[in-house]
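User: Last request for today: this protein with 2-acetamido-2-deoxy-beta-D-glucopyranose, please.
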Amino acid sequence: MLIRISCVFVVCLASYLTNARQFPNDFMFGAGTAAYQIEGGWNEDGRGPCIWDIFVEQRNLSDAKVACDSYHKWQEDVENAKNLGLDTYRFSISWSRILPNGTLNIINQKGIDYYLNLIKALKVAGIEPIITLYHWDLPQYLHLQGGFLNPQLVDYFEDFARLCYQQFGQYVQYWLTINELFQVCYVGYAAGSSAPGLYLEGDGVYQCSYVLLLMHARAYRVYDEEFRNKYNGQVGIVINSEWREPASDSTEDLEAQEQALQFSIGWWANPIFLGNWPQIMIDRIANRSKLEGFTRSRLPEFTEEEINYINGTHDFFAFNTYGTQIVSYQEEDPISYPSYIFDRGVNTSDDILHYALGIRREINFINDRYKPKAILITENGVSQDDQSLEDTERIDFLNSFLNNILDAILLDNVNVISYNVWSLMDNYEWGNYDSNMGIIQVDFSSPNRTRTWKKSASWYQNLATTKTLDPIKSF
Ligand SMILES: *[C@@H]1O[C@H](CO)[C@@H](O)[C@H](O)[C@H]1NC(C)=O
Ligand SMILES: *[C@@H]1O[C@H](CO)[C@@H](O)[C@H](O)[C@H]1NC(C)=O
Ligand SMILES: *[C@@H]1O[C@H](CO)[C@@H](O)[C@H](O)[C@H]1NC(C)=O
Ligand SMILES: *[C@@H]1O[C@H](CO)[C@@H](O)[C@H](O)[C@H]1NC(C)=O
Ligand SMILES: *[C@@H]1O[C@H](CO)[C@@H](O)[C@H](O)[C@H]1NC(C)=O
Ligand SMILES: *[C@@H]1O[C@H](CO)[C@@H](O)[C@H](O)[C@H]1NC(C)=O
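Assistant: Here's the final one, the structure of the complex with 2-acetamido-2-deoxy-beta-D-glucopyranose:
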């Protein structure tokens, strides 16, 4: 009797969990890549150089001249995406492949054809393309003119965006203007470990963010005014941040958490969703700038017109996240050189305990604060030391992340509509091939760049086709 009852209980529990672990029918599962990380074909058919081509040479890093060779193997990639049962495939357009110098005076038809073929093949396979316009590969010619420090880039980006909407717009429902603003401006212009490799830690980094937000707004408004009626697609930007968990619930640590979130998510999301930079950034950077001897804040001030131009340029909130950090209060750093890190003024460290849980909190934070119409998770995944096909750890991680995302959907009623695992395949991780973040292995030692499904690919295929998740959370 007892055994029978517990069996019934187990069955009930299992079926309850099974039901509870079902994603909505229209939820979109996808996988992501970026042009520079997979295409190769670096000097073929008229492609112009981008800042990464130059940077890897300067720093003597592994190059991406062939990478996954997707410039030639795109049909196999589409085939894999189809066999995985993906609803979406997120990829980016190489600006210098279609505009070798970044500007409209030279249009490279072969580059346009490459993306047209890819997009059409995806549509035939029943896969919705999610296209990133800018994923870090600025045409070198535009960098020579100041890159993200030069507001003229806003005009050039407008031209590039319009060309893409004209050429591809009829097939595309989801456009992402710029990927990971923090990486573009902080890592590229302050930390110097990404192209173009500058160390403008307390000024260039903010000028970059100012130009970048205007670029995004311009590209959004061009779509809104010239293409939305025709194609009815949606446009947004991709913000990246780890979740910031307070070290304790003391007032100081909670304030530190808020400060950290404003300096990561708010930096970009406030101008777009609320209007203007976060007040705490305005105040802290103005204060420190003054004490450092500057006559004005190192954070550029938006005009009233610019605030209104940027505000509201979103159809959804797209974000990338890979984990959680603990944040705690720290004493004000003494005045020395200008620096984003001093401006931010909090102590952060990686957090294994809340690794996957953070994603649910981040979704809720974004939803409560910015009230987007929908949320797209455009990147999430894990790296792996080797290229092993038995990547059970990745499955555990993804399963944990996705269970937390599903909690946000089912328990917190947040409108998360899409998840794109990073990445469709192992690829070039900006200077090396060590991250192995793909659910499909790529053999970089073979001229064929042979693709082989890892265990996680079969797992993801099952998820994408059944929309059902194993309820175990490991992390
Ligand atoms: C560049 O890297 C290669 C391989 O790691 C090494 O053999 C070579 O000495 C490096 N060259 C310079 C100039 O650092
Ligand atoms: C394109 O850029 C290269 C430098 O990358 C420059 O030498 C060339 O003159 C540019 N061409 C045009 C037409 O602007
Ligand atoms: C930004 O737009 C929102 C929504 O339209 C509006 O409520 C808010 O007042 C605007 N912000 C500013 C600073 O104008
Ligand atoms: C800015 O400085 C003023 C005066 O020194 C101080 O009262 C205020 O708290 C500071 N604000 C921030 C956000 O640091
Ligand atoms: C930052 O936090 C870490 C871990 O919580 C701690 O060990 C360290 O002492 C803190 N550093 C500062 C400057 O507060
Ligand atoms: C590369 O692919 C071709 C055609 O599929 C095959 O004949 C060849 O054996 C492969 N070479 C390697 C090194 O895998």
